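README: folding subset

This subset contains proteins for which both the sequence and a predicted structure token string are available. Records are stored as plain text. Below is the entry for Magnesium and cobalt transporter CorA (318 residues), shown exactly as it appears on disk.
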Amino acid sequence: MLTVYIHEEGELVSDLTVADAGKGSWINLVNPDPDELSLVNIMTEIPTDVLKTALDMEERSHVEIEENYIFVVINIPALRGSDSYDTVPLGIFLTPDFFITVCLEESDVLYPFLNNQVATFYTFKKTRFLFQIMYRTATLFLRYLQQINRRTDDIEIQLRHTTKNKDFFQLLELQKSMTYFTSALKTNGTVMERILRLRSHEDVRHLLKMYEEDEDLLEDVIIENKQAIEMVEMYSNILMNMMNAFTSIISNNLNLVMKFLAGVTIILSVPTLIFSLWGVNVPVPFAEMGAEGFPLVIGISVVLSLIVGIFLWKNDFL
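--- output ---
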């Protein structure tokens, strides 16, 4: 899907065709087909293969500087389910005339811009727009991390009452999401540092015009991203320690159950041994007593079983 946006007299105009796209326009590509990529290639002279780079799910965050465009790839968070999160590459192109975004799917990162809900957002202020997208990405990571933390607390409460495999699978899914977030945030931070260093390069000023307020915004983005990195590392450690703790608890509970069953087995072996001895076809005590000998043997086995049970209980085997 290809859509074109442009600010005219402070208003965001979205009902534009590709033919209407002029200088200062924002071209948004979401899972584009080959025809749309070819059309953008003709308009911007960006090679189609480069445009397709952002459509690779395994693409890492990086910056490429060419003569007629700057290509920035960042990884943005994506919600896959109640307990599943992922990251998706977002390609951003800055050309002398256009601002281009390429992504495999629609994202919450661009949603406020598509609805003109971000203050000081203008399609023709390309550098500031880039930093605003980065800032939105960092804040969205922080929001998802808070959701993961709350979900972890809920699962912990459930595990305190009952240990089900479903809860552990949910924790495993959250741990995997944390791994994706850690990798994305660190590579995004590298991209931000690289862009900050580009401000002093004269050869990119025609593509990356950075004013004082833009530098302040980029520094805010870097701080926000670092905060997200610290939070994801802290939550990852908490989640890992919690999984290890509950694994130890389950193992300890299993040991207690096995110890109890072993004690019961020992107690039951006492009457089994006595009945086995009195069941052989040889002379045994009380044999001449007839029917009166049977309850006496039963009483002896019960007394011995109680003695063994009390001994095991006092030694913490039961």
